[in-house]
């Protein structure tokens, strides 16, 4: 299982769009995927067709009332599940203030969730197979802050993906973000690794976008071999182009694959999923189509 926190303390850079559509692309590729919506604004939940109205079980119940993940998780598509958020999560910061170990509540809930379900007679036990998740990918969509919710994601994750919009000052704030991953790695989650930066809202025609990508690659290259979680971080080859379909699909409660499967947005997130899966685009060799691992 790969557990990925999608973070950037800046809003509007493509975190939710990337979490939802990458998750959908991985699910389409046959992987079992769970999205955890860590943002009180619940955009990922809405995007996946779940409207948190304060009545459905949510991540709030997991973090504040220790409800098991299995009682909160819901199927939102083939191979795709969701732990919804809720506006109540906005209060979690305050409500968890006095709790020892508040940064690792989600990690503990996930550890319990992964334990094999006890062998119960078929007629007994909670809902049919509901307690054996066995996901290949868990993607956590974080809100625009580095507070207790994002810390819970970083404590539970093995990997960090950082969506970034290539505009002036795009790299501003990246050091603070990376320092936070270093702090979490040192204090609560030694296996935390920054896998890479996903460039979103990309406009290849602008010089600025290309300059930001060059600066970013150079910046990351300077940390190669250092004892930091981003020592091997890369800029993903796949750039997510600006595409109106990506902006439209959330209001229909669908991923771009359900809304506009032939759009450039769908193509870009498929390419990103292939990169994440470790496959490159199909290479045509004679009449055969094969995929080569990178
Ligand atoms: P974040 O979660 O980081 O705040 P979002 O993923 O919600 O950012 O994206 C911010 C806004 O930009 C949303 O309205 C979203 O629909 C839109 N958006 C994101 N990526 C793209 C893209 N590649 N092309 C067009 N619009 C996009
Ligand atoms: Mg968001």
UniProtKB/TrEMBL annotation:
It holds the Pfam family AAA_31. Gene3D superfamilies: P-loop containing nucleotide triphosphate hydrolases. InterPro entries: AAA_dom, DNA_Partitioning_ATPase, P-loop_NTPase. Residues 1-110, 134-193 form the AAA domain. This is ParA family protein. It comes from Gemmata palustris. The lineage of its organism: Bacteria, Pseudomonadati, Planctomycetota, Planctomycetia, Gemmatales.
């Amino acid at each position: 299982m790969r557990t990925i926190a999608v973070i950037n303390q800046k809003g509007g850079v493509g975190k939710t769009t990337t979490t939802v559509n990458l998750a959908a692309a991985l699910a389409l590729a046959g992987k079992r995927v769970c999205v955890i919506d860590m943002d009180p604004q619940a955009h990922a939940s809405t995007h996946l067709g779940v409207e948190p109205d304060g009545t459905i079980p949510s991540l709030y119940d997991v973090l504040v009332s220790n409800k098991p993940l299995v009682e909160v998780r819901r199927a939102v598509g083939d191979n795709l599940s969701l732990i919804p958020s809720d506006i109540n999560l906005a209060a979690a910061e305050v409500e968890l203030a006095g709790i020892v170990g508040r940064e690792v509540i989600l990690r503990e809930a996930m550890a319990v969730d992964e334990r094999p379900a006890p062998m119960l007679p078929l007629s007994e036990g909670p809902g049919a197979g509901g307690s054996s998740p066995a996901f290949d990918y868990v993607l956590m969509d974080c809100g625009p802050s580095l507070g207790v919710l994002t810390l819970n994601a970083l404590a539970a994750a093995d990997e960090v993906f950082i969506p970034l919009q290539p505009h002036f000052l795009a790299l501003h704030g990246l050091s603070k973000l990376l320092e936070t991953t270093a702090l979490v790695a040192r204090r609560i989650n030694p296996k935390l690794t920054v896998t890479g930066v996903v460039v979103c809202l990309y406009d290849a025609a602008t010089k600025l976008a290309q300059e930001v990508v060059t600066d970013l690659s150079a910046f990351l290259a300077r940390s190669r071999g250092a004892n930091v979680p981003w020592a091997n971080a890369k800029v993903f080859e796949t750039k997510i182009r600006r595409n109106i379909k990506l902006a439209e699909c959330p209001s229909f409660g669908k991923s771009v694959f359900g809304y506009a499967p032939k759009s450039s947005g769908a193509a870009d997130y498929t390419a990103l999923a292939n990169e994440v899966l470790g496959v490159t685009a199909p290479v045509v060799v004679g009449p055969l189509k094969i995929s080569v691992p990178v």
